[in-house]
Amino acid sequence: MYVKSFRELTFWVKSMVLAKEIYRLTDSFPKQETYGLSSQMRRSAVSIPSNIAEGKQRNNLREYIQFLGIAYGSSAELETQMLLAIDIYGNKDEYTKAFHILHEVQRILNAVIKKLKAKS
Question: pTM for this structure?
Answer without folding.
Answer: 0.94
